[in-house]
Design a protein that fits this description.
phosphatidate cytidylyltransferase activity; magnesium; EC 2.7.7.41; single chain
C-alpha cells in the first residue's frame, strides 16, 4: 500500500533542500510555517520559521558533507567533527537540530535523524518525537525506495488510529478522531483537558481537516468498522499497539514483583472501564531536545 502522505511541489521547499547533501532517505517540512493554524493572521505563516526533518542512512557521512557545505549552520560542536556530532545526535529523541539558519530569505531549523532510529520510533514509539510529527500532515519533499521505512511510516499511522480508537468514546466525530490523533504526542488528558493544550491541538486540526483526511483515508478504509468497546475488541486493539506503549501500560498496571506477561496484563486492561485513560497515561512523555547555539 502506498503511503498516503502529502507530496510537495512547492518551489520554496525545493530551493531549501538544494542547499543540503542529497543523500536523504526522507525529508519533510512541518509546522506552522507550512500548514495554516486557526487564529493565525493572513500571511502569518510566511514569517514563521520553516521546520524540516532529514532522515539519513549514514549520519557521520551526512554531517561530514553538510559541514563542507554549511559549516556556519553548526554550533561550536563543528570543531569536534562529524563523528562527535553524530554521537550527540544519538541521545534523547535521536535527532540533532541546527536552528536559526537563514536560508533563501527565511529562517529555518532542521533536524537530522538516522533512518534506523526513525524506523524504530515509527514502529515502537520509543520517544514518539518524530513519529508524532508524522501522525500529522507534513509536506514530504523527498523519499527513497527504502521498503522498511515505507512500511514503518504506514505502521505509525495505523498505530495512531488504533490508539485514538481506544481513547475515544463509542460515538465521536471525524474531527474528534483527528483531535485525538494530533494530541497523542502532547501532554494532558484529552477527555478532560482545557486551556492552552486543547486550543493548540484544535488550532492544528480545524484548518487542516482535508489534509488529515488525505493522510488517513487509506488507513480508515482498511478499518471501516465502528469502534468495538467490548473487552474482546479492546484486547485486539491493545495487542496491536506499538511495543513501547504496551510496555508502559504494563508498568502502570502490573505491581512490582508480579511479573505477569504482557498479554495477561493487556487482557486485564481490556476489561477495565478506564481502558482509554490507561492507554493515554502510557504514552511516551516528551523528551527535551539538547540544542546548541551557533557562535
Amino acid at each position: 500500500m502506498a503511503l498516503p502522505v502529502l507530496s510537495s511541489s512547492g518551489v520554496k521547499f525545493r530551493r531549501v533542500l538544494a542547499h543540503f547533501p542529497q543523500e536523504l532517505s526522507l525529508a519533510f517540512a512541518y509546522g506552522s510555517g507550512v500548514f495554516r493554524q486557526e487564529g493565525a493572521s493572513p500571511g502569518h505563516s510566511e514569517n514563521n520559521m520553516l521546520d524540516f526533518v532529514f532522515a539519513v542512512d549514514d549520519s557521520v557521512t551526512w554531517h561530514m558533507m553538510n559541514l563542507l557545505k554549511n559549516k556556519s549552520h553548526y554550533s561550536f560542536l563543528k570543531v569536534f567533527g562529524p563523528k562527535q556530532i553524530s554521537n550527540i545526535q544519538s541521545y534523547g529523541a535521536g535527532i540533532y537540530y541546527n536552528t536559526l539558519v537563514p536560508c533563501n530569505g527565511r529562517m529555518i531549523k532542521y533536524g537530522v535523524i538516522s533512518t534506523d532510529t526513525l524506523i524504530d520510533d515509527l514502529l515502537h514509539w520509543k520517544t514518539l518525537y518524530v513519529a508524532g510529527r508524522l501522525q500529522k500532515p507534513v509536506k514530504i519533499l523527498t523519499q527513497n525506495e527504502n521498503g522498511k521505512l515505507q512500511a514503518a511510516l504506514v505502521s505509525n499511522l495505523k498505530s495512531a488510529v488504533t490508539a485514538a480508537f481506544l481513547m475515544l468514546p463509542e460515538s465521536f466525530s471525524e474531527e474528534d478522531l483527528y483531535m485525538q490523533i494530533a494530541g497523542l504526542s502532547y501532554s494532558g488528558d484529552f477527555r478532560m483537558i482545557i486551556g492552552e493544550d486543547r486550543s493548540k491541538v484544535q488550532n492544528i486540526v480545524k484548518p487542516n481537516v482535508p489534509y488529515f483526511q488525505k493522510l488517513y483515508s487509506n488507513i480508515l478504509q482498511d478499518c471501516p468498522q465502528v469502534i468495538d468497546k467490548s473487552p474482546e475488541g479492546q484486547f485486539t486493539q491493545l495487542m496491536a499497539l506499538p511495543r513501547s506503549l504496551q510496555q508502559k501500560i504494563t508498568s502502570l498496571v502490573d505491581p512490582p514483583g508480579k511479573n505477569r506477561d504482557v498479554e495477561e496484563i493487556l487482557l486485564q486492561v481490556a476489561h477495565d472501564p478506564d481502558c482509554g485513560l490507561v492507554v493515554h497515561q502510557g504514552r511516551p512523555k516528551s523528551i527535551p531536545l539538547i540544542t546548541f547555539k551557533k557562535l
